[in-house]
Amino acid sequence: MVKICLECQSEPEERGPGSALRELLTDGETASTDTCSGARLTDFCAVWDAGVFLVSAAGKGAPSGVKKRRLNEAETLNSVREAQFQRLEAARPRGLGRGARGPVLRMAGQPPPWAYTAVLLCALSLGGAIEIPMDPSIQNELSQPPTITKQSVKDHIVDPRDNILIECEAKGNPAPSFHWTRNSKFFNIAKDPRVSMRRRSGTLVIDFRSGGRPEEYEGEYQCFARNKFGTALSNRIRLQVSKSPLWPKENLDPVVVQEGAPLTLQCNPPPGLPSPVIFWMSSSMEPITQDKRVSQGHNGDLYFSNVMLQDMQTDYSCNARFHFTHTIQQKNPFTLKVLTNHPYNDSSLRNHPDMYSARGVAERTPSFMYPQGTASSQMVLRGMDLLLECIASGVPTPDIAWYKKGGDLPSDKAKFENFNKALRITNVSEEDSGEYFCLASNKMGSIRHTISVRVKAAPYWLDEPKNLILAPGEDGRLVCRANGNPKPTVQWMVNGEPLQSAPPNPNREVAGDTIIFRDTQISSRAVYQCNTSNEHGYLLANAFVSVLDVPPRMLSPRNQLIRVILYNRTRLDCPFFGSPIPTLRWFKNGQGSNLDGGNYHVYENGSLEIKMIRKEDQGIYTCVATNILGKAENQVRLEVKDPTRIYRMPEDQVAKRGTTVQLECRVKHDPSLKLAVSWLKDDEPLYISNRMKKEEDSLTIFGVAERDQGSYTCVASTELDQDLAKAYLTVLADQATPTNRLAALPKGRPDRPRDLELTDLAERSVRLTWIPGDDNNSPITDYVVQFEEDQFQPGVWHDHSKFPGSVNSAVLRLSPYVNYQFRVIAINEVGSSHPSLPSERYRTSGAPPESNPSDVKGEGTRKNNMEITWTPMNATSAFGPNLRYIVKWRRRETRETWNNVTVWGSRYVVGQTPVYVPYEIRVQAENDFGKGPEPDTVIGYSGEDYPRAAPTDVKIRVLNSTAISLQWNRVYSDTVQGQLREYRAYYWRESSLLKNLWVSQKRQQAGFPGDRLRGVVSRLFPYSNYKLEMVVVNGRGDGPRSETKEFTTPEGVPSAPRRFRVRQPNLETINLEWDHPEHPNGILIGYTLKYVAFNGTKVGKQIVENFSPNQTKFTVQRADPVSRYRFSLSARTQVGSGEAVTEESPAPPNEAYTNNQADIATQGWFIGLMCAIALLVLILLIVCFIKRSRGGKYPVREKKDVPLGPEDPKEEDGSFDYSDEDNKPLQGSQTSLDGTIKQQESDDSLVDYGEGGEGQFNEDGSFIGQYTVKKDKEETEGNESSEATSPVNAIYSLA
């Protein structure tokens, strides 16, 4: 990233002499949000990232305390502006011209030849700043005052057992020399044989291998780096030797206390440097169990809210662990003697609901053991952690609750510790001051203690001075603004000497916290120091002023060849340097016109972007850099290549095991590029075995097996681009058949392993042995070893490792400081066994962490903060007790000293950050055994604020009746105040051009992601008046709205007519009705009706009718009663016909018959079926006629209503015999039931077969009379005539 510091000035048409003074009296926030409006003097820092010019506000409004000091310089600055504005217009743009490595160079695989220009020197000035690249050839030519690059921390504590190292490194040209002061006096290194200085560095090394006491070298040190252009200073480094004194010898008498009384066991550790970590254990090194009744205070004392009899079961020893020496010192243990009314320590009483009453302990209201009294006060520095503590006694044990008077506790940074007895507020700010109180309560009452918290602040930067590099005759300034509580004082120095005692410089003027330079010359070079301090600390910053006079020169190799893919976007970079800062222009193929506009875009840093590469863009491009001292040029040859494309892709396949599979992959590519085709399996490189054959356009797999199943990806790549195609191969396994008796037996899950045993115990490993369980007729394929630890996640089992089913003993790799417990699970093809019983526990010894937390991020949750988060480390990576994290951060572009804090959780919020600036972040793990490895640096960003500017010069072009094209000017990047998400258009329909048509004025929006300058808004309503506003959107939200624009959409086609209804009152007519369209979208000129008759698959000729705009009814006369009609109706405007609505007429009642007649009656199979049925009926009728002509008995069941006389002849089965020999009817006649003889008719009726006139028929005409047909064997043999049958009986007889 290249950083160029610019100033933006503009003058209004009318300006009075007091305007600068009036501006300084305005609110500081207003000053910080103004860009180039009016005549406000505002600095901007132009940042090139990946070749894109970004603008971020560097000037901020002064806080109220600074405004008064700035009044003196207001008029002075006002007089400078006119001349400076003229200079800026002549020299703009300012800064080092440099394009970041673009996508073209990365595709070509060419490292950027100017990669060594990474370190940048940015300055905020009236006239701008020049940036020096780190090209060695330029660095060796250009002079540069010293800059401190590395130094020890201000409070430097060292281990007395090691040599002392005080770091001080600097850079400059010529290389600086170093000297030191100790306690503000010159430190003569040559006179002390133990002290030496590293070569080409100012780092001091004090060696004690030959003797000496480190304490003799304690004091305050300061490093001076000097060359002929100035002197830079380090911080004042306070050197202290770590101390871990012994505990004084003492004999402690037993502590006698009444059961239920409070008790404090004082630790009083020896004072160490740094302070030791305190913890309580028994003399046998067992930790003391702590709870809300017994706990350790922040001062190290052990508090008993009330003493119980079981507290006598152990002794109590205070332990102090010293960080630097890694030693633990133990105090002589306390022993307790508890006087009680219940001498037996009955364990069953511990869970008694009223334990104290059961033991005869009197209940008491709470009282505070720490702090004493009802009120106290506490002071804390801004950015530190505030720890408030309240420990109370009472019976039963009191509960502690925390409150803030007049407000809520800050939920985002407040947490409770030590069983709610302590309240910790991290990263304290001024808003955390106030009164807090803790409330201790039990069932006997409550008591509270008020703590008044005052927040003070050591100095912190508002504007830290930056290095200033100018061309001869330019103007600039150094600004040093800091805040704190109390307000810090500012002291300026030059080359390490107070500015007041330095030689006078007519080109320099000091105005409080600002030094103004006018018409700088080569002799103005120096290093300035700003020291701001109050009673809580100080800040020291170096900033040099360097004046350069350099003609333009190119930084990249000459005549580069850039190859790009057709239709891609690319960028040609031309890094250059010069002072004054040169201007850059581009030409193609030696033509005289400058390239900018259309398909070309030249960025402010000089990079040329071609938005879409075409064949005609191939050629030689020349960049020319010019300033008043000369010019320089370079050429880039651009070649355009065809893209690589897979035109025949592999397809998904399903194959049986043992068959051959071929996956095709045919590629087109530019013939001048070398093509490489490779294959991936399941997104991993495919190993080509002897069963596979890889050809230019295919992959063949012989003898496919189950392991070949998966996804196969063909990757066709050249040095510039690549294309991918994926297919999935499914392998079908053969049907398994039992091969032996075992395979035929029922299979089940294996039994659990048993008898786990730990052997070969080592620091980082252990051997686990087990006895396998029964496999239940399915061989065990795998064993899974799981572990559980009791510190971070007790009771949760994790997979440790997996072993083949053929082993029952394995060596397990272990992590330090984990109390392991193992179990084993057996697996076969049926499933998993139940876990084995756990093994015994094994704790490994501790060690420093070997890794750091992952997924480190820095993101703003508010506009003035940055939340640093990470994924906490688990038990197997903690490696020791008290796992914590050292969080470091600093501004990325400033390379300031790292800020650091120790955190026990997984997040930390950095407050009071500028809006959306990049930070370098590091998170390092640390436990009681030491620190983890040096962490990687990640880049995070502070919070975003709402954008401050709206798009300008919004232009609208109407494309058609439903769409418009938008074009606007981009906003300055410093006004975005975050990541630019999109430009967004808000638009609404104000009215319709049709009278009396109500429209919805609901606001709609259209987004245009990224840094775009144009877009299209569609889906508008035609023939309407619209209004439109545009905003800039970042991660925080919308910015201010632009000027409201109005536009009108032209007439369009209407929507479909509403409620189109088709009714058929009779078989001769069809009535049509409809309503006007919901959206006319213009002036209606009529309706168009198209309709057509259809019958089955036959369709008639289409008929078209046109109606006036007021007609909404029409009647159609049917041509025939059988056909149906299909109607299509649309409305028309001058533009044309709109969407049509389609309906069909209802089906007539006989449509089913008509359809069958039209569709079925003409089918051959139907005709054949009807002929077969007719033939069958004919045969049945012939059989019936033959049977009837023979006569016979008609047995009928007795169903008559009239009773029969005794003389009536009767068969045994109740039938009557009408074929009696004595009364035999004539041939061809038939006797009826009433005895009359009825002449047989040719068209006999089914009534003749019934019981006289009583024969009944169903509703469908079928006969339901009942017949009893009895075939007497003897009668049949003696009478040749058979009984006459009904058609039903004839069918039975035929069957």
TrEMBL record:
Residues 752-847, 849-945, 950-1052, 1056-1152 form the Fibronectin type-III domain. Residues 835-862, 1037-1056, 1196-1295 are annotated as: Disordered. InterPro entries: FN3_dom, FN3_sf, Ig-like_dom, Ig-like_dom_sf, Ig-like_fold, Ig_I-set, Ig_sub, Ig_sub2. It is a single-pass type I membrane protein. Residues 1209-1220 have a biased composition (Acidic residues). The keyword Nucleotide-binding does not apply. Residues 1038-1048 have a biased composition (Basic and acidic residues). Its main location: membrane. Belongs to the immunoglobulin superfamily. L1/neurofascin/NgCAM family. PANTHER family: NEUROFASCIN (PTHR44170:SF12), PROTEIN SIDEKICK (PTHR44170). This is Neurofascin isoform X14.
